[in-house]
UniProtKB/TrEMBL annotation, chain A:
InterPro entries: AAA+_ATPase (IPR003593), ABC_transporter-like_ATP-bd (IPR003439), ABC_transporter-like_CS (IPR017871), ABC_transpr_LolD-like (IPR015854), MacB-like_ATP-bd (IPR017911), P-loop_NTPase (IPR027417). The keyword Nucleotide-binding applies. This is ABC transporter ATP-binding protein. Keywords: ATP-binding, Nucleotide-binding, Transport. Residues 15-252 form the ABC transporter domain. Gene3D superfamilies: P-loop containing nucleotide triphosphate hydrolases. The keyword Magnesium does not apply. One of its GO terms (molecular function) is ATP binding.
From TrEMBL, chain B:
Keywords: Cell membrane, Membrane, Transmembrane, Transmembrane helix. The chain crosses the membrane at residues 273-297, 320-342, 362-386, 418-436, 448-475, 496-520, 720-745, 772-794, 814-833. It comes from Streptomyces tropicalis. This is ABC transporter permease. Residues 275-396, 724-840 form the ABC3 transporter permease C-terminal domain.
Amino acid sequence: MTTSSLAGPTTAVAARATELSKIYGQGETQVVALDQVSVDFRRAEFTAIMGPSGSGKSTLMHCVAGLDTFSSGSVRIGDTELGSLKDKQLTRLRRDKIGFIFQAFNLLPTLTALENITLPMDIAGRTADRQWLDSVIAMVGLADRLGHRPAQLSGGQQQRVAVARALASRPEIIFGDEPTGNLDSRSGAEVLGFLRNSVRELGQTVVMVTHDPVAAAYADRVVFLADGRIVDEVHGPTADSVLDRMKRFDAKGRTS
Amino acid sequence: MLRTALRNVFAHKARLLMTVLAVMLGVAFVSGTLVFTNTISRAYQKSSAKGFDRVDVAVRPAHQEGPAHREGRGHRAGRTADLTQADLDRSARVPGAASAVGVVGGFTALAGKDGKLVGNGFQSQGGNYSGARDPRYPLVSGTAPHGAGEVAVDSETARRTGYRVGDTIRLSVDGPVLTPRITGVFTTDDGNVAAGGSLALFDTPTAQRLFGRPGAYDEIDVTARPGTGQTALKAQLDRALPHGSTETTTGRQLADDQARTIASSMSGLRQSLLVFAGIALFVGTFIIANTFTMLVAQRTRELALLRAVGASRRQVTRSVLVEAFVVGVAAAVTGLVAGIGIGAGLRSLMGSMGATVPDGPLVVTPGTVLAALAVGVLVTMLAAWLPGRRAARIPPVAAMSSVHAQASTRSLVLRNTLGALFAAAGVAVVLAATTMNGTDGQAPMGLGAVLLIIGVFVLTPLLSRPLIAAAAPLLRGFGVAGRLARQNAVRNPRRTAATASALMIGLTLITGMTVMAGSLQQSIDRMASSAIRADYVVSMANGNPLSPEVERTLRGTPGVTALSPLRNAPARIGGGTEYLTGVDGRAIGSLTDLAVDEGSFTVGGTRVVVDSGTAASHRWKAGSGFTVVYEDGRTQRLTVAGVYRGNDMMRGIMLDTAVLAPHQKDPADMQVMVKTAGGPSAAAKDRLAKALGLNPAVKIQDKQDISDGIARMFTLMLNMLYGLLAMAVVVAVLGVINTLAMSVFERSQEIGMLRAIGLDRRGVKRMVRLESLVISLFGGVLGIGLGVFFGWAAGELLGTRMATYELVLPWGRMALFLLLAAGVGILAALWPARRAARLNMLAAITSE
């Protein structure tokens, strides 16, 4: 399910990993977390990365998002090659081009909801685009909670703040690490709904790591990882189809 | 439970490190103090015992005026009857006596080759070399001194000055300068020389003449024949010598007395050093309490689990206390070792600063070891006690909740009320004390100060919010990092407060001392210089009285236009003893500048001037008459011509020396004030010095010299205090490091998130540094504020006794202290900020 046949090949891809490897340790204790992974994340597409524990799904996301270093291969965000960047440039790239949503919400308890939302822009020393900000806030339904501190918000509300924070600076791509992992199913569904809307309506690119087939079903495409390799891909997934695939991997994983 | 506690200690090694360091520093200071003072006093005792080796029994004149007048040999004031040659002969003839040596001595100033006084004047002694070979003073080179033109000096002084046998040395006993030839250099175990003084020896007749005791002695040292004990010899001497005018003491007794004197003078030093160690330890308790509070908060679930599986509250508390005990023991042991090092270091430091310290082994008594261990362990356990109690209150159900139970969020209402009460009571008591006079106010002021400090401690969490909020405009320039730093600083008010308090204590003391010392210095300076119109004040280097010869010499010196001695004379007035000050009635008016309250400042004949304090106590007014009984017993009727406002240097009853002289047997001048033609100049000073024969024992000071001397004294004292209080500041730095490290640890997830969403390492570092800066400045501002208040209050108390006292706020110093606080903050943040910046982002944001 390609989203944009109009855009050229470089602009159609928001992030791309090519033969990406990540190896921990050396010799006997060497662990290959990612083994020559090549994957594209297309613009305005909602991708879910799935796989059993230890499959390397989080590592893949961390490497592509510029949070972690990799051993070989290359990663591009837009036109930027990550492999050659120093920490400072990587930090700036994350600040300007990438949005994050974490499992544990990771809001600053000392800041209000609004301050949390504008935090990446405050760090950059930019003023938020008011109109865009308002529309994002309206979308996640937080207009009447802006002055609250995280402790005064429910888990679902906190994650909505985190979604708004990721969207507010209009990043090239948003990465979510189990964004619904700490939420009840209703709040989780809300958050996933917002993410899907942001892709459909705002043309945002979203990549989400999850182990929940229901969450994965919100995505346009699901990439399956096992033992550091991409083993399968499903377009237009449903919860059942995802679950079905996963059962197969699990069975394989147990017998091997 | 014990195993759990021990495991915890090892699991939190890094976090306990700062706690261990803080306790260790305090313990090191305590044990260092004990080791140092024990070592020094043992060494002095040994050297003084050696000094009495050659004395089995000492014969001294019986004191007739009470022990207060026997302050060492050669002190003129209150000198008692001397021992005669007959006494010496009689002592020598006693059957048990092997030898008897007559001793006479006194102040003897030596000039170095540069013409300046050798030593500080207080330890410049002279004495007699008895016979051709005095066993007390083995000669290293040369021969014994004979006659007025010869002298022997101790080898240490010879080494220091470069004098050798055959050289001519300038010296002075109480006025006229002598230039004898050095015939010998000797060694001595005289304690005075061991402590950096000088000793010059003349032959006995010369010494007797110089020290004003022709044919007489201060002391007779008798040695016993083999087989005769000290007590037996003492009994023989008591029988042989005239009863009532002499007294005998055994050498052992003398050594014991001296040992006791040394011990008591050491105990003063020890106590003041221990006070500073106590301050450092007190500061340390804040850090310990902070650390354990944190450890307990982090382990809430674990502790709750222990409770859930059946541990009693007491067991939980005990497990925390066991942990504290282990930490305390570790800290105390390392502190003790460090303290022994400090003790050794202090001794060599004193040696390198010019003070000669007798050699001796390092003394580490079991008492020192016990004290160090007890202090370390008790302080740690005491500080951990509250957190331990808090740990016990964690409900077992907390083990089930998925979120960390926050540390008790009990409101601060009770705490604030208590704090406000304490602080208000403290302020009230201090203010009340300032209205009392001097000595009465001391106790209430101390009490008030303690109450106020406790109150402020308790209130610091409350104060942290508004004070840190006040720093917001400054932090705004730092963008997000500044804003986050400010919010983080007030996030845990209790912890911030405890951290800032640790710094506050040190700065309160430092500021208080500085304010007081600065004000005192200024007031003494003003007192000393403003009341003097004389160009020069001539006095003895060791504070002894001057010979009247000095006044006579100066009177004949060209260029001197006016001069007056300040001559002390005891007298009885209306049943009480008063000291009269003899002055030159014609000159005194032009040499002093004292405000006159009543009458006129005229001194002459029977007309005298009296300071307002003395006048008030006798209910005298200008024109009042009173009868004075002089020391020779004769009486005279005097009239008060004027009442002047006195100060600590010039006060009492001033009368003309011409009136006083006939009644004084042995006149002595405290100082001589001189006015020269053309005012003070190097040439004028030179002329005076030359006229006095370039006497090394005489100080000629102009107003500037006096001011400088006072300033030097205060600077020295303040620097010593700063050095000692630096300890408390170092501990406070550890506290800030500890708090920051804990904050960084606690907030690692937040910091990871900030890094992920684009705050670079510099931003993270800046955030931690600014937090540290804010906390430190908070402590600094509180400390300086309290210090100024205490300095002011103590000054008010002093002001009642010192007319010229006025509060001087050392703005420059205060700014410096604030900078110091800021420096503490930045320094303390170095490591935590680095850690925060290096934090593994992934570990931090991937929830466990």
